[in-house]
Amino acid sequence: MPLPPTFMKDFHYEDQVKKMEYRQLGNTHMIVSRVSIGGATICSNFYGKLDFEEARRTVHEAFKRGINYIDTAPYYGDSEINVGKILKDIPRQVFYIATKTCRYSTTGAKQFDFSYERTMKSVDESLLRLGVDYIDLYQLHDVEFADNIDDVINGAFRACLELKAQGKIRAIGINGYPLSVLKEGLIKGNGKFDTVLTYARYTLHDNSLLDYFPFFNEMKVGVIVASPQSCGMLTNRATPSWHPASQELKEIVEEAAKCVFESG
Length: 264
Known about the structure:
GO terms for molecular function: oxidoreductase activity. It is built from eight helices and nine strands.
């Protein structure tokens, strides 16, 4: 594979970078590695206690080997702070950073805020925590929890258009789990969204994303497939208690895992 624009000779393992596959993310400026780093694992909120030094070593090694995209969010507890601490020792040229807005906490009355004003404030908070001058991809987080998609478009999305014009962000994304809601958001965004992200939708137990690929291609957005391990359910660890899957599906996956491990 040709070397990506994020390659730095004195930083990377060139032979490893040449083995990595890269794709342009929609019509954005980003030529991203096909695998990336999810910031929900770089916090203490979701997957158990964080070993920060292990996380730091992991991210540094991943970047040296050609991964160039990392995604986080204010919703992921202290993830943005931890990611910022990790990135300060890495040249800005070698990575793309994505974060999110609109979802801020796991509990309380202020979990979500899709307003223009909160989004304008949120971006400065994220820039400070991450220690960067601009964000490559700024995403509207879990839009299905808004009262309606029009509130998202008239509030947070309008703010993102201004932030992009100001240079604080370089691309705008829309995120969520229900694919029909993401489709509605893209239509109402009038072609000004750059990416769409959904999670646990292209896995061993759910391939519904395939039905939406033709539409996403028509809209010319980059498609980000998050959590291919279905938020930890398709691993050899116990499914997290907060996992949104039905109890029936959790039991089926657990039984399948037992069969795999017992068969050696």
